[in-house]
Structures are given as structure tokens and as C-alpha cells.
Amino acid sequence: VLLCFIFLSFVILHYSLDVSAPLLRTQAFVDGRWVSAASVFPVLDPATGQEIARVSDCGPAEAKQAVDAAYKAFQSWKLCTAKERSVLLKKWFELLTLHKDELAKLITFECGKPMRESLGEIAYSASFIEWFSEEARRVYGDVVPASVNDRKILLLKQPVGVASIITPWNFPSAMITRKVGAALAVGCTVVIKPAEDTPLSALALAELAQQAGIPAGVLNVVPCSREKAPAVGEVLCTDPSVAKISFTGSTATGKVLLKLAADTVKKASMELGGHAPFIVFDSADVDKAVAGAMASKFRNSGQTCVCSNRFLVQSGIHDRFVEKLGRAMDAELRMGHGSEPDTTQGPLINIRAAEKVVHHISDAVSRGAKVLRGGKRLDGSFMEPTLLADVTTDMLCTQEETFGPLVPVIRFNTEEEALAIANAATVGLAGYFYSQDVSQIWRVAEALEVGMVGVNEGLLSCPEAAFGGVKQSGLGREGSKYGIDEYLEVKYMCLGGLKP
């Protein structure tokens, strides 16, 4: 792997985010106004540790104000026609596209992504707003044939109300638009709590939503520090005015939020942790499998919920696949600050994330795994992309999600063995496999216990497809025509006393 060794002092001097950037906002956004909290918290560049900005540190009081503003705005927003909401969302989409470079730079500096990936995320983010701007006008109810002649049965779809949107740091823009686009399209209003590591992207989206003409109170953002997150989250999950919670993050946190929401029986969407298998069968095109593995594993330095985490390779092509993957890592991966044009691997989000990867590598090596590439932690939260061979199912890296640039390869002999290993996890978000055997493709795709399957494809997310998992990977679906249903209630209307 070609490494970018940079002295920390040089990095701090060389890379900085322009504090006068036109979309840099540091206050909370409540009821159409920029609001300061009593205190602030720092947002750091994970590549350098340098402070980018200080952001309002909201607490329960600000969260309650945002919920109240959203509830008030809901009374009028739900009465807007679908076309009116569609037009406003389309304007928001156009502004995201117009300001893609500024938005991408915010992601790179607060999240650590290479600039080319950040630009890709903004295009992905905007695509959800565009998709749901179109779906807003296609929320159809039903007329159901009645069993008697003097009545009509109508099924109406109505917005649930205020939605709490709680998002992670790894896709600080797209995880918001995928949820908020659907919510606003059907007439819901939202309160967004972005991750404490990456609030700047959420606040920039709010600025552009305001410029697009989305009314005050329809979209609110309450950033907060890690220390205040539990108290803010409790308000967003327990306030009676909130009708719906949408969360993306760890399974452990999702379970806490579901418990908080239970007392008021709120509707909930949960996109939780993954542990994706990547299976390469003997019939696979090895070159395509290697390309798919590179795309699936090393995007955002391995920090995505659908990243491949366990690599299962059949004995017949195991050695060839591992050799070619190692060469691809050498040739294609370059570490550095995300703003450098050649960088493909930025830092992990923080030191704790890097320490977890090191722990997984150390555990695997202690149990017999061999390090074929990488294996070392560098300055700060930078972690070498690492390839492990001779991996077994008793190692930590095959039992829990790593969320970093680690490729642990398990050798298997039969299709049944691979499926047993893949399905042993308690989670099931995404899974991938490579095969040119059509019968095997159908068998394995149906047998994998995941919500999404990539067949001969390492990247599968798009606005048209339903995104979500099974088992403890979550509840509900995002994106697609199904994602909009998460923000709707079906009301049964029986119109009786009619003359046949």
C-alpha cells in the first residue's frame, strides 16, 4: 500500500477549512431561525485533530423547542398539496447540486472522506431529494370493493406527523436526505439530530432548505455533543408530539431508542449494524470479484454499514483471489488527507475507531491469522488497509463488525459451509457473492439472511431500491417507493348509507 506519511504539525498548517465558507453554519436551526445554545462543542478534522468550528451544544430545552416548532408547522405543511411539496423539494435538490463542491468539502473535513467520495455522497444525497420530490405526487390510496351495496370502502394515506431523525457520522449528508426527503414529501415535519462528529453537513442542508423556500419549522436541526446526546435523544424519542423515529446507527443504540419510544408507541424505522459477508465461489470471475471487493470494502476506509466484513473464498480459487486482491491494494490505495486529489483512504473517524481495528487484527494474529498487507496503525486515526489470511470463525473480526479497512479471508469448501458461516450472524443488512452459476445465484440469493444482496456487484445503494435489513439490522425500509410508506398511516374510511 502506498502510504502518505505526513507530520502532524505540517498537516495542521497545510489543511484547513475556510471559516468563511458560505455554507458553514454553527448554530442550531429551529423554527426557521439560527439559534445559539448556552455552550458550544468542537468539531474536529479527523485527519489532523485540528478544530474546524465550534457548534451550538443543544440540550433538552432546545430539542423541545424544535419538536414544538415542528408540531406547529405540521398543521399547515400537511395541508400543502403534493405538487407544492414536490416543487419545494425539487428546488432543494437543485441547490444541493449547485453547491456540491462546498458541501463535499464540509464532508471531507468533518468526516475524513476523500474529496471524490464526498462529491459522490452529495450526488447520492441529492438523488434522494429528487426521487422523493417525484414520489410526493404518487402517494395513492385505494378504493376497495365493499361486501354490501350501500357503502364504499376507502383507504386513505396520511402523514404520521413530526418525525425525529437521528443520523450517523459516516454519511452525514445522505443519511439525512434519505429520511427527510421521504418525510417532507408526504407532509411530515422533522427534527434532525446529527452525529456529534459531523454536524456541519446537517446545518448546511438546513441553510439550503431555507433558501429553497421550505417553511419555518418544517425542518429543524439540533446539534449536540456526545455528552448531551442521551438527553436530547430522550426528548426526541419520548415527547408526545413526536409520532415517528428514524434512526441509523449501531444496533445497541437502536435498541435503547426503541425502548424509549415504546411508552408512547411511536412508529419507528431502524437501520442498524451490519456484518456483511462477501462470498467468492469457484465459478466466479476472479478479476471482477477482486474489483467488487475493493469497491465494497474500502469505500470511506471501510466505515459504512454495508461494507463487506467477512470474506469467504472457496478453496479452488482462494490463493488466486488473495494474491490478486493484495496486488490491487498495493496499486490502488493511497492514504492521506481527504482534500488531496490522489487520496483514496482517509483517516478513521476517531482514535477509538482505529483502536478497534488494531484490536481485531491483534486478536486474529494471536489465533493464527497471517498479515499479508498492512496491519499497522499510523499517526492519529489513520489505519493501514490490512489483508489477513488463514482467518477462522472464532476470531473477533468474523464475529463483530470492524468498521475499518480490514479484509479477513476465510477459506471454505462447499456452498452449504459458506451459507452456514454467512447466516450465523445475529444481524443481516447486506451480503455479496460472486458466481457465474445461474442455479447457484438463485439458491444463494434466496438463502442469504440479509435485506440486500449484491450478486456480482460490490456497490448496491441507489434511491430507487429499498434499503434495509433483517434480524437485528433493523426495521423498515428507506429509499424506493417503500421508503415513503414509513412516514404514512393508512386510514380506513367507511362511507355508509348510500342508495344502491
TrEMBL record:
Pathway assignment: Amino-acid degradation; 4-aminobutanoate degradation
GO BP terms, alphabetized: gamma-aminobutyric acid catabolic process
Matches recorded under Pfam families: Aldedh
UniProt KW keywords: Disulfide bond, Mitochondrion, NAD, Oxidoreductase, Phosphoprotein, Signal, Transit peptide
SUPFAM superfamilies cross-referenced by the UniProt entry: ALDH-like
Signal peptide region: 1-16
The keyword Phosphoprotein is assigned to this record: yes
E.C. designation(s): 1.2.1.24
Lineage of origin: Eukaryota, Metazoa, Chordata, Craniata, Vertebrata
Molecular functions per Gene Ontology: succinate-semialdehyde dehydrogenase (NAD+) activity
Enzyme class, UniProt record, top EC level: oxidoreductase
Span of domain Aldehyde dehydrogenase: 34-492
Family stated for the protein in its record: Belongs to the aldehyde dehydrogenase family.
Designated name of the protein: Succinate-semialdehyde dehydrogenase
Compartment(s) where it occurs, according to its Swiss-Prot or TrEMBL record: Mitochondrion
Gene name in the database record: ALDH5A1
